Amino acid sequence: MVCGVGVGFASAPSPPLYDAVVGLGSNLGDRAHTLERATEALGRLEGTRLVARSRFRETAPVGGPPQGPFLNGALRLATSLGPEALLARLLELEARFGRERRERWGPRTLDLDLLWVEGVVRASPGLTLPHPRLHERLFALEPLVEVAPGARHPATGEAYASVLVRLRSAARRGP
What we know:
It is a single chain. By secondary structure, the chain is α+β, with helices and mostly antiparallel strands. The protein is about 30% helix and about 20% strand. It contains four helices and seven strands, in the order βαβββαβββαα. Strands 1, 2, 3, 4 and 5 form a five-stranded antiparallel β-sheet that branches. A two-stranded antiparallel ribbon has the order 6-7.
């Protein structure tokens, strides 16, 4: 029989925590209400804690058919969900909010993009990290840098804040 005196018990190892940024967008219905509800839902995901949230910005749609403006923002999460599992939860949440994928870059009740996971690079059919067009899109980079000012591209080490400065400068110069 083992006594509790002087005996240590090993606890189960805790899963690794990932530092992740999720982009949010909506251009159908009550956009602000949708993004607030989505933020609450993401904060309640098992194994996930909301670390920071950006302000919401109204932005013009990029690509796709003619449509109304978006409201965009970002959330920084600490999560034990791996990137693929987190993406699966994001897609489930979009569906719960009525997202229908009829045409590429079409109007959306809710759009959730896994933009960045610290130290993770992926290039698979279902997931590319960092987001493949992150470096081209002010509506994604601005809120990412707001919630994760020290974030860097995991392969190149370049600070996203530097990419944002270049992108803003190019936008001011025009096409």
